[in-house]
């Protein structure tokens, strides 16, 4: 069987599709991954075969300004209650949907041309790659949408989320002979059921499998090594960022007169009882500019109380990051991040409580669902801006939330329950059977 995968971006869009693609290859099927030329190298690094379908203009990819930091109060379950949204809020969603339609328009010609040549029996596309549904409709084969960890199946291709297709999307579908009402036949959803919002879409839960481009036998991160009993001296604090007043040396954890992370009966980061061993938390940030000043101040406040902060992604702030997030988290007791799907799922698999400072709508959805099940806390990034008491004071308050995650047992208990739920989800091998059945009993 020939299966065509497609996405418009690497990173969080490509990575969730890799486990299924590999499982299909292991089952004897043929796989190709059709992507814009700027994503081809990322596909090749996964060991899959890329097919370049042209380049995406920067102007098409750029997110609309209203979507980067949406203002106002949004219902925590807005995807299932579109009638509760204001006209301005629907305008934000329309801008996001129109952007994805423009991306689909830029991809469709090359994608459909290759699909007609290669004749796949199934198309798998990431949730935001509408061109995948266009190609499946043009060929008359099943389409499978791959979600990447959102709490909702976001139908931004629909007017007001529940209505007919956006005009531009309908025109694109008709251009290639596809039915504008066509939807994916199945959605693959790595989100644990307790975090997911209800949807009429047909969803198949599939366990999250982290992938970072490394081989299974690669040397573990220093934090994994510590848990196994090793203590690599040269990696005591990979990714540390010292703030003014810190020496940058490990000895600050035991300074007299401060709450420390030592296991000698002293009080913990917020003054509560401590477990043995150091208190280690992870800060992961996706934006190229790194965390906002308030988040940096919160991390400095935590370090001043003896907490060891492990920084991943742009949170490393110019220093080498500690390692792939899923490899670092098992040695940590909390994660502070933006609420992206991959980070949410990695922390869920590790059983780690999460503090989400969410700049975008999907991040806010994830944070609200984590708070609902008790596995974390969240606040919109705008809430920090609105107070404007100064980054240091706002950071101190954010640090109190972080300390609460460390000290209140209910958060760890809920995070471990979420881990059990995530681990119980079926793996990619089960998804192989489900998606191949869509193509017909003879496959």
From TrEMBL:
Residues 23-215 form the Erythromycin biosynthesis protein CIII-like N-terminal domain. One of its GO terms (molecular function) is glycosyltransferase activity. Residues 233-254 have a biased composition (Basic and acidic residues). Residues 324-435 form the Erythromycin biosynthesis protein CIII-like C-terminal domain. Keywords: Glycosyltransferase, Transferase. Residues 211-287 are annotated as: Disordered. InterPro entries: EryCIII-like_C (IPR010610), EryCIII-like_N (IPR048284), Glycosyltransferase_28 (IPR050426). Belongs to the glycosyltransferase 28 family. This is Glycosyl transferase family 28. It comes from Streptomyces iranensis. The lineage of its organism: Bacteria, Bacillati, Actinomycetota, Actinomycetes, Kitasatosporales.
């Amino acid at each position: 069987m020939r299966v065509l995968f497609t996405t418009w971006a690497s990173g969080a869009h490509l990575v969730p599709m890799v486990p299924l693609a590999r499982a299909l290859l292991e089952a004897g099927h043929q796989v190709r991954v059709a992507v814009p030329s700027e994503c081809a190298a990322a596909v090749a690094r996964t060991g899959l075969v890329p097919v370049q379908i042209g380049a995406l203009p920067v102007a098409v990819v750029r997110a609309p300004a209203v979507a980067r930091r949406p203002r106002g109060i949004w219902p925590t379950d807005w995807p299932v209650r579109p009638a509760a949204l204001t006209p301005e809020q629907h305008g934000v969603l329309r801008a996001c949907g129109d952007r994805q339609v423009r991306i689909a328009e830029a991809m469709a010609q090359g994608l459909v041309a290759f699909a007609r040549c290669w004749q796949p029996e199934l198309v798998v596309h990431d949730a935001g790659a509408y061109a995948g549904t266009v190609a499946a409709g043009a060929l008359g084969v099943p389409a499978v949408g791959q979600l990447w960890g959102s709490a909702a199946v976001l139908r931004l291709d629909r007017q007001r989320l529940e209505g007919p297709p956006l005009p531009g999307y309908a025109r694109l579908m008709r251009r290639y002979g596809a039915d504008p009402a066509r939807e994916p036949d199945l959605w693959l959803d790595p989100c644990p059921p307790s975090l997911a919002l209800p949807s009429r879409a047909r969803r198949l839960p599939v366990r999250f499998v982290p992938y970072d481009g490394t081989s299974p036998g690669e040397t573990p991160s220093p934090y994994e090594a510590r848990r196994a009993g090793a203590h690599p001296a040269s990696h005591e604090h990979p990714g540390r960022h010292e703030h003014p007043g810190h020496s940058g040396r490990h000895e600050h954890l035991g300074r007299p007169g401060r709450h420390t992370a030592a296991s000698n009966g002293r009080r913990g980061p917020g003054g509560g009882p401590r477990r043995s061993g150091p208190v280690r938390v992870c800060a992961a940030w996706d934006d190229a500019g790194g965390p906002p000043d308030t988040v940096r101040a919160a991390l400095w406040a935590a370090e001043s109380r003896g907490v060891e902060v492990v920084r991943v992604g742009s949170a490393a702030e110019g220093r080498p990051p500690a390692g792939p997030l899923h490899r670092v988290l098992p040695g940590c007791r909390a994660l502070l991040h933006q609420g992206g799907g991959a980070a949410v799922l990695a922390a869920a698999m590790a059983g780690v409580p999460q503090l989400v400072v969410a700049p975008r709508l999907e991040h806010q959805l994830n944070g609200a669902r984590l708070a609902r099940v008790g596995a974390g806390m969240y606040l919109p990034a705008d809430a920090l801006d609105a107070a404007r008491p100064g980054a240091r004071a706002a950071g101190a308050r954010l640090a109190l939330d972080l300390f609460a995650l460390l000290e209140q047992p209910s958060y760890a208990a809920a995070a471990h329950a979420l881990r059990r739920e995530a681990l119980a989800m079926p793996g990619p091998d089960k998804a192989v059977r489900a998606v191949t059945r869509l193509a017909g009993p003879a496959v």
